């Protein structure tokens, strides 16, 4: 796998993991026993924990990318047609 295809694979894996991590631990004001402020969406999360999710996403994506690199480099998986 070349460096450009390695970056592309990492970015795809990163975004997939990021979208999987987004809803984890998110609670709306109703679930927290609070009232949504005037003008706010009632289903909007109280705290998103975004910095933690970005770090977790990067670590998980790096591990999965390493696995993908090993599979492609060993010949067990091919990304060429």
Write out key terms for the chains shown.
81 residues; mainly alpha; 0% strand; rod-shaped
Describe the structure.
The chain is mainly alpha-helical. The chain has one domain. It contains 3 helices and no strands. It has helices at 3-21, 29-32, 50-74. α1 (3-21) packs across α3 (50-74). The mean pLDDT is 88.
Tell me the number of strands: 0
Distance between the termini: 14 Å
Tally of separate domains: 1
Output the helix-strand order: HHH
Based on secondary structure, the structural category is mainly alpha
Number of helices, where a helix is a run of at least 4 consecutive DSSP H or I residues:
3
State which percent range the strand residues make up.
Answer: under 5%
Q: Radius of gyration in whole Å, from Cα?
A: 18 Å
Low-confidence stretches: none
Shape: rod-shaped
Major sheet details: none
Mean pLDDT: 88
* Helical percentage: 55-70%
Q: How would you concisely characterize the structure shown here?
A:
The chain is mainly α and 81 residues long. It has one domain (1-25, 48-81).
Element layout with pairings:
Blueprint: H1 3-21, H2 29-32, H3 50-74
Helix pairs in contact: 1-3
